[in-house]
Amino acid sequence: MPVLLAALGALLVSLDSAINIALPAMASAFGVAPAAIRWVIICYVLTYACTAFAAGLLADRLGPGPVFTVGLWLCAATFVGYALASSYGQVLLLRVIQGMGSGMVYGTAPALVTLSLPPARHGRGLGTMSLGIGVGLGVGPVLGGLLVDGFGWPAAFVFRAPLFLILALLALTRFGRVAGAAPTPRRLAVADLLRLPVLGAGTLAFLSQYAQFAVWLLMPFFLVTARGLSPSVGGVVFVVTPLAIALAAPLVGAAMALVGFGAGLFQVPNLALMMAAFPPAQQGAAGGLAFLGRTLGSAVGVQATALLFDARLPRDGFLAAFHAAFHAAGLVCVLAVGLVLLPARSSAPRGVSVR
Q1: C-alpha distances in Å from residue 67, one per residue of 57, 74, 96, 108
Q2: What is the pTM of this model?
């Protein structure tokens, strides 16, 4: 049950991809430029980056179950708040609060998995949790597009309120503390963070998310603004390669599929390596660190991509600025590949199996 709850929690959090296709509508509603709308993403991911790590440390003290459950309740309350938001500032404040709740869910979900399964099944359990993330990322843009077309941009947020409420009630009844959670706590030292396996996994997660979120920021504007697609059709193109080929962006659709496929191949082994680098008493910290690396990459990627796009747009126009931003993201991927190919010193797992 803890693995299923972790996967469902990760799925609901990753449904935040629904808001990406709503970004053009939000920019229009609040009179915000495409580059400036990045703060909707940055306020959220920076908050849950820090919160995920703090939640992981707290989970090592209290057990991941209670921290995970509180995060679900906070998310449910925040999504109700979006129905009442009337200004861009209010939306950004809600994104910070949502980031706190999401960080509590993301930061403790890996520990829920590894502390409830025998070591030989950790890799499979983390794969199940990551499947939840992948489903949310894939379904989100389609749902978001349909909701924006039918009800306006707030619907891309509000629809998750009852889903989080149901899962929070389920979590509350199923566990207070996961069996095996919160063993004798071991204080996290600086030396624990400076080990090669930890630095390597964190750096690669950072670079991967940097490149991926360059896509997530600008692609909705390309589909809706440059290509003139409706949000609902743009949401489908965002995730389905055959429809992308049949519609207005053939090459982009194929490229989007490759981005997702590559991220899927990378993320599960990367997460498993991070969890394997820490003993059972520090599984909360390990999960928090894994998502800290990812989310810092997301935030920096969005910021750098927006700045580059904004600098090129007045001089070169939309398409040239769009291409420049994607070329820069590609170079980040090349850097990540170069780091992977460097000879690395092996390190024995510290109480967690990656199989």
Answers
A1: 10, 11, 18, 7
A2: 0.66
